[in-house]
Amino acid sequence: MDLVLIWFILLAVLWTGYLVTEGFDFGVGMLLPVLEGDGDDRNDRRRTMLTTIGPHWDGNEVWLLTAGGATFAAFPHWYATMFSGMYLALLLLLVTLILRNMGLEYRHKRSDRQWVQRWDLTIVAGSYLAPFLVGVALTNLVAGMPMTEHTMGSTRYTEFDGSLLSLLTPTALLGGLTLTVLCMAHGAHFLALKTDGPIRAEARAVATRAGLVSVVLAVALIAVLGLQRGTTASWVVAGVAAVALLAALAANAKGAEGWAFTGTSVTIGLTVVSYFLMLFPNAINGRDASPDLTLKAAASSPLTLEIMTWAAVVFTPIMLGYTVWSYWIFRRRLSVEHLPRPAEQPTGVH
User: At 294, which helix (H) or strand (E)?
Assistant: First the structure.
């Protein structure tokens, strides 16, 4: 198999891993104010929800870092074009992730109410904004970006020719909204699977509502993109993704949280696959009459790809093995009763 195609497939796998794993902890962050209740145990309920993702969220982000690094090494022109065309959007995404991660790290360092509320705000806001920006970016790659072709000597290359506003098309915004709502449903299924008591029951109710909205949005998104860029394979994969989402809703209604979570995981994974099928054989589709940036033009040298392939053969199983092990170790359900009481802060200590 061509090494360029192999690395295109590996990038699809990395984005699938990122959106499936980080998707549910984005969803958990979104649901903090939704599932906190209105009793005296509101903070305890938030702590419980955050504890479910505590062992995983930082490892989940490794998928994004690896996807970015692999794009830089395997397809440098793709990487450069994305960062020139989406510089402000990607900078905003990085700042959002940094502030969200700071909230997850620092929230528990002090127990005073104002400190906790401020960090909770960064967690919730970041959990909404990050998947929205990712969805907008990925949808732009498929729907098409304004591009121009240049010639330098005997070399012809394609570059982004637009602005930040040119990325905010209705289709791209729909892609961001769809991913955000789907992550909310995914996170609700995860909380129903990982908690017990009132949070579990309320998470299932939220999963149903968010799931129904995501079905409508996903059908609209795939229809719009499919009419523009669809292939037989992408339509089939998108159809299976829709079936998986409906199956997740049915499983959630029956209280089968594990199958519901599996259903949204499959939906997100197959959505990424359908995106990449609509993208192939390009790295970035051109908008309207704009030229495409092909994978061949964006790829590194054969020697670079060969070295990277051997590195991936060695390290990918290690990463996957560690990920599976960590999820297995922290597989038990949690409830408010399982939380240790926070230590009281001495008077005058800040």
Answer: strand 293-294
